[in-house]
Amino acid sequence: MYLKKIHHVAIICSDYAKSKNFYTEILNLEIIKETYRKERNSYKLDLAIGNCEIELFSFLESPKRLSYPEATGLRHLAFEVEDIFKMVEYLNSKEIQCEPIRVDEITGKRFTFFQDPDNLPLEIYEL
């Protein structure tokens, strides 16, 4: 029995409308399915990204995630891009700040970080 691939990444947001807009309108992820779960007063939004999915959840009164200083656990979510400079320019045009572009000392590839509406660290990594 072997793991084949990552199926999905789950994100819990504090403001569903704001996060839905960010992931669908700014990052242009395709909506697979949106579900409102009345018994939990919660939304679940399934988004397509390559051969993987992002599940965006809204739960009332979820605790805040520690990001800085970095806490133990999942560090960040990274997206692959063809042209990091164009992506940074695009994000900046949407008033999303990116850190300075750096070069991975192991792979020689360029990368940078930005944040989603809940300050979840997101990375863009150039092919």
From TrEMBL:
Signal peptide: none annotated. The keyword Metal-binding applies. Transmembrane segments: none annotated. Residues 5-127 form the VOC domain. Keywords: Metal-binding. GO terms for molecular function: metal ion binding. InterPro entries: Fosfomycin_Res_Enzymes (IPR051332), Glyas_Bleomycin-R_OHBP_Dase (IPR029068), Glyas_Fos-R_dOase_dom (IPR004360), VOC_core (IPR037523), YwkD-like_dom (IPR037478). This is VOC domain-containing protein.
